[in-house]
Each structure stands twice: as C-alpha cells, then as structure tokens.
Known about the structure:
Shape: globular
Largest sheet: 5 strands, mixed
Amino acid sequence: DYMSNTIDDFRNFFSPQRDKKHFSIKNSLENVLKIIGKTIQNQKIELAITIKEDAQILGYQNEFEQVLLNILSNAKDALSESDVENKAVEITINKMEDQATINIDDNGPGIKTRPIEKIFEPYFSTNWNANDTGIGLYMPKMIIEENIRGKLLPTNRDMRARFILVIPIDI
C-alpha cells in the first residue's frame, strides 16, 4: 500500500488540484521508521531521536515522509559502506516561533561532493549500484522548497553529514 501511495504521490507531484493538510512532524517520522527502522537496526546503526517540540506543518504528508525516508536511507547506506565504529543516526525535531527544524545527522564519512549543492542535481548519485533509484536528493529538495516552502540544507558538521530541514509553520 505504501509503495502504491508513493507512486501516486510522484505521479501527482505537480498536480494543482491537490489540497494541502496539516500534519505532525513526529507522526510522519514514526511512519517512516515503521518502514526503515528495522533495516537501520539490522545494520547495527544506533538511532537516537530527540523531539524538543513537535510541530504541525502544512503540506502533503506522504511527500514529506518520502523526504525523510530518502535522507535516512542515504544515511543508512553511507554508514553501511563505511568502516566507522559505533554507527549512529541522530534526529532532532524542534519548533521555534514560526518554523520547525529537523536535523538528521550521521557519523559516517560526511558529504564529500564539492560544491555540496551538486548533490541536489537530478540523477546525481555517489553510489551507482543495483539498489540505487537515481532519484537522489533532487525530488526531496523540490518537495521541501516547492510544496512546503521550506529549505533543505546539507552540511558537514565535525566531518559528519547533517541535513537540516527548515519548515515554516502556521501559528
């Protein structure tokens, strides 16, 4: 069912007839972890989640969940292919005034691509293999910027990959 909904989401991505709805970031993360959580655990990756304050955001929940799934899947892949000990992904959700932030950090080798914004180009990938979808981070960036009016910011923090999602909220 989830895959069917995903296909429909991509098919309807630019459809102007859709209605945005308010949804919880925390609930969306829980939905995504139902899909990828066991895979992360099986890869012996520790997952730490801190929800300082949940937020209701306006958008398309399935698309937003695809963004989270994509970023977490990339983190899992990077960690699985690295020789880092004590592999970990940290997710922090917070709400400040008129925006929510979601930080997704992993302690893998970081983002080596330069300039770093190149990771958002269509069909860009650092690991072309049989499991690679080719979607990369282009669609997640489009979803966050075009459909949610937010920002998706990649960075390396202490040589670790970090993705920051900044999402406007209606107060």
